[in-house]
Fold this protein.
Amino acid sequence: MTRFVAAIDQGTTSTRCMLFNHSGQPVGSHQLEHEQIFPQPGWVEHDPLEIWARTQDVVKGAMEKAGVTAVDIAAVGITNQRETTVVWNKQTGQPYHNAIVWQDTRTKAICGQLAAEGGQDRFRPQTGLPLATYFSGPKIKWLLDNVDGLREAAERGDALFGNIDSWLIWNLTGGPDGGRHVTDVTNASRTMLMNLQTLDWDDDILATMGVPRAMLPRIVPSSDPAAWGVTRADGSFGGEISVCGDLGDQQAATVGQACFSPGEAKNTYGTGCFMILNTGHEIVASEHGLLTTVCYQFGGDAAVYALEGSIAITGALVQWLRDNLGLIKQSAEVEALARTVVDNGGIYFVPAFSGLFAPYWRSDARGAIVGLTRYINKGHIARAALEATAYQTREVLDAMRQDSGVALKALKVDGGMVHNEMLMQFQADVLGVPVIRPQVAETTALGAAYAAGLAVGFWQSTDEMRQNWGMDKTWQPDETSNAKTELYAQWKKAVTRTFDWIA
């Protein structure tokens, strides 16, 4: 009898497999990091073969820790870093190039050329997205234009494109030996190639970007009772299990937080920070720098849409303090370092390492620390780094209020940074609303498990999933704090100092 659902959570810096029981509680988990490759300034890459190897390792590790075998697992769900672009040979499974990561800015010139004829919002009516280096479409074009022989291979159908979800599903279900080439509606909505109305690839945009349809995966629901295939009997799961759930990481967290009603929102604190507001079956166009995207689609039901505010660098800034500056040895140490000072000492850290995402969409911006004096020490830098996450979230929430007309009464939060008590309290102070952490903070993996489990009847409905949600802790805003007034005003001033750095 199957007792669990498996979720593979392939993120920007690590890969994890988690097993969940019917109550939505984790019963086994294993996680491994992978290399971050920086060939030149602004370029960020991953090795797809390393990611596939790590995936196999974490599956085995999670199953060993939980003491389960394939017969105990009802289904497998995938969630992934979105927009990260892989192109591989379908005969051999060999990538033509390293994966180009969502943070990568090499496509700035391509985006500029495309915008020259129709503006930054040229494709927004069809896709809900502005022209930006963030999305997959321009990355595919860059690969087709720069990798010898790739365009010809793509036109023949020998070269396959996918975000990381497609890459993993293809390998899990057979690879060169019949692997299924699919992506779900949420991941497809992040390519800038899918039409939000039709939920299919947009031929006009494909022609404009020069992307052959033959290389694209089939678009499927996020939770699909038909399944796309089964894991290989000789693979890391050690048996045949239906692969039938797929969600981009931020949409997965929205599902894991049980935000199934229009007006419900969550914020995930990971490598970047991403706030999603469920808008139901309505496609809401943003006028304040947000993205219109697909939230999820379960089986044959109509797609549910969302507004999203995407922030490029939050947790990645803590990793930068660790790896590039050596201020801390482990990411968790940043809170203790930040607590060595009582405030930020007057400095503001704007981490526009990949330009500014929502609500600005300024690819010409670069990171800056402003307000420096000789008084500043490493504690102030650590504190300013954490505060940057809270300020950026406030900017996104303000835009979301303007677009939706909904005044958020509380914010559900998840992801690795929500265990930072100082950050969560400061976040509540900057927003002026309560911040609520669920009992299962790693809701991204849980959302992928829900999608897969729903497809096979492990969970019968969204109401059943909602009943699993439980509150762990709430941070109330400090009414005496000036974080949402004077300090936030100074942050807004600091952001302007990063503009126009790259010509």
